Amino acid sequence: MPSGVHFSVDMKKLIFRVIKFVENEKTGPSIPLYNCNARLVAMLGISEGALLKLKKELTAAQNAEEQEYRPPRLRSQSKVRPVSKLKRRSSASIVVPEPEPTKKRSGRVPIKLSEQADSEIRFQFHALLAENIYPNTDNLLERLHQLHNDFPVQSKTTLRRHLHRIGFSYKSTTKVNEIAMEFNVEIVRLPVRHCCLNPIELCWANLKEYVRKGNTRFQLTDVRELAAQFIASYDGDTATKVIKRTQEIENKFKIADRHMEENIEPMLDDEESSEESDVVSSDDE
Prior knowledge:
The protein is mostly helical. The protein has helices spanning about 10-25, 35-45, 50-70, 115-130, 135-145, 155-165, 175-180, 200-215, 220-235, 235-285.
């Protein structure tokens, strides 16, 4: 190996493979000489598909060099030569294409925040909530830059990514939530699968039942007419009945909750305390 030349590990593996293949050919070719592709696959240790791609790239590089080698011809000096006088370039001149360097991914270097910066983001997020300000990436980023001129995060996209990383996940919100928070109004939302506590759901159920009974021809025009009839006949007295019905259902839930709190839960607490006392007494023994 010449001095000053260093081969990579992959290059050494390839050279060793070629040396071993050539030494095995001393006694005779193990693969027929006419089967160039099979010999190259065995020599280089690559797949036949990869070999075909390399040969295609080699041919393209040779053609490109020949195009550069040929001098431009002038029409006034061009002469048509017979085919027999055309000389082929020496087969010893082989064009070895330079391998293309690996493409580096362009873009900004990802920002890594310290624990102190993460804590500051959390603190300012909750500070906005304490001031009845709905926190978003705009006002949070503005607050961080007002307090810290050298804060590393400069874009809303980067701030949103770090918020997700430290546990803040934005969910789809409506204007109602922002306005309610601005005016300190509490929104009471019904629990899941308790639509009976919503009067609008009862009105919707009555509308569907009315259309179901009157829709005998199963046509869309009939459905529209029946829905319009129901809405036109829905007066204040009917709406009042629906609200009272909802209040009755709500009172039933309240009675059931009061029964659980006053009668059932104390019994469960007594059983747990008795079990704990039994365990403690057994441990003492």
